[in-house]
Amino acid sequence: QVQLVESGGGLVQAGGSLRISCAASGRTFSSYAMGWFRQAPGKEREFVAAISRRGTLTYYADSVKGRFTISRDNAKNTVYLQMSSLKPEDTAAYYCAADWVPSDNIGKYYSEEEYDYWGQGTQVTVSS
């Protein structure tokens, strides 16, 4: 069992930066690939970024590539999402998710069905 708690969301102006975090419980964090998803009001939840369990592989949605960076610190059981050049369309609730994997690959990292555990979300609002 893994519990995920996101933090760091808030209100930021367009063009600004924000880093959100996701802290995981348990001693097997390094056995999980991690992903970030987001859901804007009235829209489906969508993939944002993913990172393999050792952090050697990262994947991004085209809409955030070059602006967002996912990273993890296995010693701290935490995954981060550094967001820069934020746009109003980045406004959403951001969720982290954990996917147990036997190797340093992720598989369908973009699919919600790939992930076993989810956090409760943190709100990011970008004002224009």
Can I get a quick summary?
The protein is mostly beta strands and 128 residues long. The protein has strands spanning 4-7, 10-13, 18-24, 32-39, 46-51, 58-60, 68-73, 78-83, 92-100, 117-118, 122-127. The strands form 2 sheets. Strands 2, 4, 5, 6, 9, 10 and 11 form a 7-stranded mixed β-sheet that branches.
Give the integer mean of the pLDDT values. Answer: 96
Class based on secondary structure composition and strand pairing: mainly beta
| End-to-end gap | 40 Å
Shape: globular
Helix content: under 10%
* Unreliable spans: none
The radius of gyration is: 14 Å
Total number of strands: 11
Specify the number of helices: 0
The biggest sheet, with number of strands, parallel, antiparallel or mixed sense and barrel status, is: 7 strands, mixed
Please explain how this structure is put together.
The protein is mostly beta strands and 128 residues long. It contains no helices and eleven strands. Strands 2, 4, 5, 6, 9, 10 and 11 form a seven-stranded mixed β-sheet that branches. Strand 7 and strand 8 form a beta hairpin. The mean pLDDT is 96.
